[in-house]
From TrEMBL, chain A:
Protein name, entry field: Dolichyl pyrophosphate Man9GlcNAc2 alpha-1,3-glucosyltransferase
Organism: Citrus sinensis (Sweet orange)
Amino acid sequence: MGKKKEKKEINEKVDVEAVEIEDDTWWWLTHKGIGATFLCISVFALLVRVAVSLHPYSGAGSPPKFGDYEAQRHWMEITLNLPVLEWYRNSTGNDLSYWGLDYPPLTAYQSYFHGLFLRFFDPDSVSLFTSRGYETYVGKLLMRWTVLSSDTLIFFPAIFYFAFVYHSSCHSSRKNDCAWHIAMLLLNPCLILIDHGHFQYNCISLGLTVAAIAAILSQRELLASCLFTLALSHKQMSVYYAPAFFSHLLGKCLRRKNPIHGVAKLGLTVLGTFTVVWWPYLHSTDALLGVLSRLAPFERGIYEDYVANFWCTSSVIIKWKRLFSVHSLKFISLTATVLTCLPSMVQQVMAPSSRGFLYGLLNSSFAFYLFSFQVHEKSILLPLLPASLLALEERRPFKWLMFYGLFSMFPLLCRDKLVLPYFALHALFMLLYHAPCGHGGRPRNARPNNTKFDYFDSFKTFMNGFIYLSSFILHIVYLTMHPPEKFPYLFEAIIMLICFYQFALLAFYTNVKQWSLLEHSTTEEEKKLI
Amino acid sequence: MESSSSTRQLLWFFAIAVCVKLLLIPAYHSTDFEVHRHWLALTHSLPLSNWYADETSPWTLDYPPFFACFERFLSIFAHYIDPQIVDLHNGLNYRANSAIYFLRISVILSDLWLLYGVCRLTKNADVKRRNLIWVLIVWSPALVMVDHLHFQYNGFLLGWLLLSISFLQEGKDLMGGFLFAVLLCFKHLFAVAAPVYFVYLLRHYCWKGLFRGFSRLSVLGAVVVAVFAAAYGPFLYHGQIQQVFNRMFPFGRGLCHAYWAPNFWVFYIILDKVFSFFLKKFGFSIQIPAASFTGGLVGDSSPFAVLPKISPSTTLIMVLLALSPCFIKAWTNPQPRMVARWIAYAYTCGFLFGWHVHEKASLHFVIPLAIVAVQSLEDAKHYFMLSIVSCYSLFPLLYEGQEYPIKVLLLLLHSILMWLGFSTKFTRASAPNTMVTAKKKGAQSKSIESSSPAAEKGGFTIGWVGKSYLLGLLLVEIWGQFLHPYLLGDKFPFVPLMLISTYCAFGIMYSWIWQLRWIISTT
């Protein structure tokens, strides 16, 4: 009761009645503390995931190549039946041209364990060669359950760890905010659609990353670097976050009495973790290079399909693939990526702070998404994760990014026949975002420094309506109309253009936002968040 | 202003549920799906006079005429979506996506009627209680399992019942009676509560002196007769009325449904088994009957070895006997605030002692009881147990692996929400609370006062009996799902189901006794 009174005093300006009603809507959900709230929301999130997993997966019933589902199943087959050293190598038992393993070893180990699970219940589903294109009711069920269990065992606890750290350190966060934030983190529609609809295991690498972030927020840097190394060894895409981790940890070490000691400790942790995970391939350079070359499929070109990044969008005008060789494109894209990462890295080295770190994660993953080599639509999950971690501070940009992130994956999900879950999850997200008496656009956290970006707001309101409307129409057009024969990918291209434009704007905004953190005295920052 | 925001909140709760229900569209559905699809085709392609005579499919129309009209109404849209859905012959066992989507979405939309019922019932309740009732009804796991997975239209029908209760609670008896009559013409299984309605309306509405009473009785009678005439008149005109009743009351079915509903007869059957087992041991010659309890024609042979056989009229007498305390209370002290309890009690009795009861019928009392569940600590404790037990007893409906996590998570989520909601409501220091709510709604403060002494006693806890019962539920589930197939393989496949219904029958019996005690003790 005392807490409640305090809260009332804090919120003096807010209408007392409103506070009363606000508390009443969710009082029962939040009053038992963060654990009970988390339990409740996570059971709901799990239910939603199971419901999505009823739907088709990518490449269902489409021989000969099928889709990501078949790829994952094939990896289980390979890892289960072949010795470790053959996993990444072309051999009589392993045809790399048919969904060869192209993720780091941790994914291979995970496939191995899931393969054991599958073999226990349904040996046919993972037998060598004969199981290709294996699609049965039980097989699908078991595969879906492997994702569900990975999600429950890795992503959920990581989010709990993060929410616990973030909200116990956060001064002004009300219980309702905390519940809302957890819901936003656990019911991320993009992640659910890709993992439980399309079929992938992003929850593992993203979960490890979240755990690493939470560890950093709670000042456990060694644990953080170990966890992030694991994330990297699960999916090379986690490298999108590497600049942020690197610069934040470096910045922190530099401020210690003995910077070299700190850097060495972190470096040894990272190397040690890598050594353990990559051990089977460290015996010969050939083996190691073989694995590494599998991880970086440069031959697939700078972009595939229609991804809303710089290269693909600008290729409408400049034909990158024709103008430059793969080698020079590699160099160009690397330079562009590093250049766009650089501002946020510099900021973190200069003034490492928890809040700045979260912005840094967002900025570096945006930089990679927009400018790096071989980006996939699904990679929008990576910027989305730090955006959802920052959801309480950046409410509207978060919603914005989620909206266009979903939209950019719409053609992909249409191909997977996931239109119904797409719309259902989209609606669910919007409903939760605008939960009654929750947050929905009420600028409660309007900070004085926001006034500086007024031009941004006015510009946004000018364009927002138009773009929301056109994207809504595009959804319908995409579903109901056939593109002209001359431009079979016209709609995809338009979607890509709109999304790229939004992502670029957001990336610019978050970069500015991160730099504006410098203007505050750093000591205040430190006090606020940790 | 406040009511509009509360409607918006209720719609929000509903919309969340809709999202989940939409996601569940591709899930398993039972033969009831084909039943309802066939009824769409039947009512669409045949003239009214043939609705109850048709035998194209084994799934003949066996709901009352209003439900048939409802199907006719839906079939108009179905015809636009995909004409094959409503094709009497080509549509048989039609399972294209269009049919699945159309029927599933029609259930989701028909739930709006339930929403309206809930909205009307809770419009005067204070915020906290209202939210809890919404969670209990709009997010009811049992409704999701029965309506949106198994496939039926219970939400829509329960909407009528809740509407009727809301009118009765406001003292608008005529309207309440009218709505109940309409409900009966949608689904006659709801008739179990008719005696309670009759006694209550007679006493509360008509018992007002000789002249006024008589005129009211005739008005009420006229309304009810008009409703029934509207429903059955056309069939009377076509000379089909006998056929309609034959279809609606198929007494050829057995005492229990294929899967025994967790009711009193489970104990009876088991007692019979035990007796015959022991008598045989002691050397008596007992003939084990070939007939089963679930099917077969009544009157041919008794399915019981030792105990006397049960006829439909026996069950009727038992139901009426069980209802008699309720009649006495309703007659001596007819209070609008008790109506929901009485009606729920009537359905409980019907469930426990009725003939050929289906486990889905537990919805008929679990949903109305949600209204009173938040009134006091005792109610909350009782509802917590009942709701879990009744929801669990529905598990065998969804027996496929794909839906297994769904039903478990639904029950788990429901239990957590109930536990959070009830424990918060009944432990929060009530002094400032009462002030706020009393300020807002003077009328509602009574129950808050009644809850505050309970809060002092320690709030919402489940005693060791309840805890061990719930633990037992878990053990029954583990046995049925994992240990039984592992240890015994395919032997005794009926044991897990029998265990579930027996075990749940204890819970439902407890609920019946609890409700009976409450009804007797309140004045």
